[in-house]
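Notes taken during the Thursday session

The instructor put the following on the board and asked us to keep it in front of us for the whole hour. The protein is 3-oxoacyl-ACP reductase. We were told not to look anything up and to reason only from what is written here. First, the residues (446 in total):
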Amino acid sequence: MADRYANFANSGLGRTVVKRLGLPDPPRLRRYRPGDPLVSGPVLLGAAPGGRLSGEVGKLLESAGVTVAESGAAGTKYAALVFDATGIGDSEQLRALFDFFQPYARSLTGCGRVIVLGTPPEAAAGPREATAQRSLEGLTRSIGKEFGRGTTSQLVYVAPGGEQAVESTLRFLLSGRSAYVSGQVIRIGAGSASAPADWDKPLDGKLALVTGAARGIGAAIAATLARDGAEVIALDVPGAGDALADVANKARGRALQLDLTAADAAERLAGYLSAGPHAGVDIVVHNAGITRDKTIARMDASRWDSVIGVNLTAPERVNDLLLERGLVTPGGRIVGVASIAGIAGNRGQTNYATSKAGVIGLVQSTAPILAAKDITINAVAPGFIETAMTAKMPIGLREAGRRLNSMSQGGLPIDVAETIAWFASPGSATITGNVVRVCGQSLLGA
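Then, after some discussion, the predicted structure tokens were revealed:
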């Protein structure tokens, strides 16, 4: 459904009215299109004394064709401000952040990017360093709410030993792929990651399974993974057969009709993956999900059971069997689709919020176990995304969902899909246990 207010706000008359009345001002976001440059202008790169990442980051950006400036010039417009804060060891040294960002806060182009690189507080040398590094979260989240005009702001904690694994994340956060991701904290673990042969086709040769693929976000995920080179198995319930076939055909993949809540679903899926020429799967995206909304006082047991069954129990069962049979290949990726409701809760959605918080728990509890198998598991947590389902919401709730975020607009299914594709990349090998909100930096649960 078209966002009529956003279209009006971006018209000539609308811009005047919005500015005069102080109304929400949704910018036109810069989203990725094949062939786009990584950024649309130079990147200003700064560092606190003793930082361990700026040298590597500068080399990576230059090799990607980005013009890197290490000192600001008056009047220059920058596409991104990147600051290496790993050298900050106590609260007094936080002044380096002010000295870098204050002079150039107004020098970003529209839809600019801000990235701060830090050390995970738990990996700090002592309490003072840990305190200072934790402070970075307040800075980046505030910048995301201050800079406006489609600017995104992120904090990337890089564990010592993870310096060679940052390229995939930098490329995602600097590009239009991350248009609706802001105010997030991303953790990159120790170790190295292999760069794909072609960053435009990072999933070439991979087999991806996408559940709930017949429409909406699932269809966008299938299309995006296929665009990035993967062969896609699009899975959904038999009742969605025609729509599912259309998605699979467009992705040049395969359609698989299966109800994941059936008692033998995991066994049938494992058999299907075992029999294929690939003999396993590289990427598993648990997107299938349903809502059955009622306040808990008015909810019957069937609504509770069906939502928990589809959204949480089915992914658990599928994961358990595929991992037990060794069908998720070494270097594999598992990605769950949680929700902002699982973080902030939502009235009338106790069942849904419980299931989506469970997806987050599944990621966090399983990540250390899967690390030993060279498999990562992460989740996206969408906020208000423009789909057929949200188009049916009452207008008041729909408008609130669209406006209560730093972008003053709803996201698109492609925004969720791009984030999943980043998790799935070979270059994201040391990113595991992360939950990244795709919500335009929602004011709910912030």
